[in-house]
Amino acid sequence: MIFASDLDRTLIYSRKSMGTVPENELVPVELYQGDYISYMTQTSIELLQKLAGHAMFIPVTTRTEEQYKRIFFIEEHLQPKYAVTSNGGKILIDGILDQAWSAHIQHSLKESAAPEEVSSAFAQISSPEWVRKIEFSDELFFSVMLYPERAPIPVIEEFRHRLAAMGWHVSFQGRKLYLVPAGINKGDAVLYIRDVVGARYIASAGDSLLDESLLNISDLALSPRHGELYARKPDKAGVRYTRLSGIKAAEELIAEITTYFLSIQQQVPTIS
């Protein structure tokens, strides 16, 4: 059994995204330039550690490999054998890049427009008034830092349709806009791992449109109510949204997934 989960705004939260929660419930999980910048609740940590005893936990993130490794809690306390970074562009096995998957990704990129074409198209709509910085992350996809209050939503929505015709996806997540080739997605990466380990069941969690491919291939799919996915697709078939929002949503979804796996184990004790 596999529990594959997005990280930011699903399991871990910045102070801006967590909502109101007592300080004594928070545990820092990410260190960057000497400061703690992401947190989980103590309850979420305990629940996740319990869940990892019943299923293979796979972190699945749009973060680059370098950004993922800043989350010290995962490596020190959970030590997952597999991790998916760069929105599915990379798979790490015991912290080492899976070269076979990387070769597959390079082949799949040929099905989408070249990054230079996408960069040129975005340059036609971008402006310093709302774009702070643009990066080509891991030479796979674009991460655009925004001034979200100034972002021209209708222009971005029109660009979304334009990019879809070029074989790229757009995800708008507050201060960031992601432009990602269709061949790089979380769902395909987790299916690859599932086949390698021979698992039969997948439960997943994620909050954004970039998590949709992961949720679509899962037997149980949960999404925090505060996320981009809920905002755009509140009636999405096959996905259950949490009752809670903010950092407390993590407790709810981990608890429900644990109950799901325990029920499977009770039915067929030898299932994997």
From TrEMBL:
Keywords: Hydrolase. SUPFAM superfamilies: HAD-like (SSF56784). The keyword Kinase does not apply. Residues 4-217 form the Sucrose phosphatase-like domain. This is Hydrolase. It comes from the Bacteria. The keyword Signal does not apply. GO terms for molecular function: hydrolase activity. Pfam families: S6PP.
